[in-house]
TrEMBL record:
InterPro entries assigned: 23S_rRNA-intervening_sequence, 23S_rRNA_IVS_sf
Superkingdom of the source species: Bacteria
Gene3D superfamilies found in the cross-reference section: 23S rRNA-intervening sequence
Annotated organism of origin: Candidatus Saganbacteria bacterium CG08_land_8_20_14_0_20_45_16
Protein name: Four helix bundle protein
Length: 121
């Protein structure tokens, strides 16, 4: 059995994003960074979870709301990645990769949200 969301490119990219985030965080585990790393992990996981949950909703309005929550969680990751990079904890190449991937995911989420907008009128 395949769930509908598993075929979405945005979901696949979100899974890659959270997987890369967890790998980066495994390498960053330092006591004073625990809270910010935990927040980054939770926010990155929320991106894919809300895409999946949105796909499980029957109304377009609910689905759109979950996609917006997913987008908000993605946006939450950017300042955390920026702070880690500025503090020298996250390498420039890793930061740029994650930033670019987040940009692609954001673009795809915006497309999903816009595709549901036409039904609101």
């Amino acid at each position: 059995m395949t769930f509908m969301f598993e075929n979405l490119d945005v979901y696949k990219a979100a899974i890659e994003f959270v997987d890369r985030t967890y790998t980066l965080c495994d390498n960053l585990k330092k006591g004073y960074l625990f809270k910010i790393i935990d927040q980054l992990q939770r926010a990155s996981l929320s991106v894919s979870l809300n895409i999946a949950e949105g796909c499980g909703r029957t109304s377009r309005k609910e689905r759109k709301q979950f996609y917006k929550i997913s987008r908000g969680s993605l946006f939450e990751c950017i300042p955390i990645l920026t702070i880690l990079h500025r503090r020298g904890t996250l390498l420039k190449d890793d930061f740029l990769f994650m930033y670019d991937l987040a940009t692609k995911i954001g673009t795809m989420l915006n497309g999903l949200i816009r595709s549901l907008d036409k039904y609101d009128n």
